[in-house]
Design goal:
The chain has 219 residues and is mainly α. Helices cover 92% and strands 0% of the residues. The radius of gyration is 33 Å and the shape is rod-shaped.
Length: 219
């Protein structure tokens, strides 16, 4: 390189700077792509499921209130209205749960979801359906017994299950944020290192080229 032509040295300088520029650009695009993926995951796999789980929890509480309301005023009209309210909530819960299960889940979340689904199925088959049947038959004592005993116990278990799933959304979102922040630090430092190296290389190489041009002009 010492005995190379000035044009050759300029081409080498420009080529090296172009490579470094492409490296910085590629690094920036990689960071943007990863950040976009992280934000998409937080929204689709954490924020949306949290809303879905919150809706399920609210409808479960509304079912309990509807059943208590049916027993508090056991008239034919009121019982029919409260039973229809529970049936509507059950249908909505089923649809929302399907949407939730379609989201991307961690291994821990999948296990918690299976546990909750089993508890919900047990509650519906062993308590809720018999309770609704008793209300349809105007069998208030049986309905009251089911509500005061197994219904409350199962509802508390479902509350624990839904709470565990909601807390997991927060934990995973926090972990993804921490990973994105760490990735940003790495990309940020790497970009600064490349820029500094590029400037140093351009300065040193440019100095020698300038000196060579001066010598040649002097000769």
């Amino acid at each position: 390189m010492r005995h190379s032509k000035v044009s050759t040295r300029l081409i080498a300088l420009i080529g090296a700077l172009a490579i470094m520029l492409m490296a910085i650009g590629a690094l920036g695009l990689y960071g943007i792509d990863k950040t976009n993926d992280a934000l998409k995951s937080v929204y689709e796999d954490r924020a949306v499921p949290a809303v879905q789980l919150g809706d399920i929890r609210a409808r479960q509480l509304d079912n309990l209130a509807a059943l208590e309301g049916a027993l508090r005023t056991p008239s034919t009209q009121n019982t029919a209205e409260q039973v229809a309210r529970v049936e509507s909530n059950l249908s909505s819960i089923g649809q929302t749960w399907k949407l939730y299960m379609a989201t991307r889940q961690t291994q821990e979340e999948a296990q918690l979801a299976r546990n909750f689904a089993e508890m919900r199925a047990t509650f519906e088959q062993q308590v809720l359906r018999p309770l609704l049947a008793a209300l349809h038959a105007n069998d208030v004592p049986t309905a009251a017994q089911l509500l005061s005993g197994n219904a409350v116990f199962h509802h508390l278990e479902l509350e624990k299950g839904i709470e565990a799933l909601l807390q997991l959304q927060v934990r995973v979102a926090a972990r993804e944020y921490a990973e994105a922040e760490a990735r940003y630090e790495v990309i940020h430092n790497a970009a600064i290192a490349i820029i500094v190296a590029s400037l140093a290389f351009a300065g040193v190489f440019g100095f020698f080229i300038t000196r060579s041009i001066g010598r040649e002009l002097g000769a």
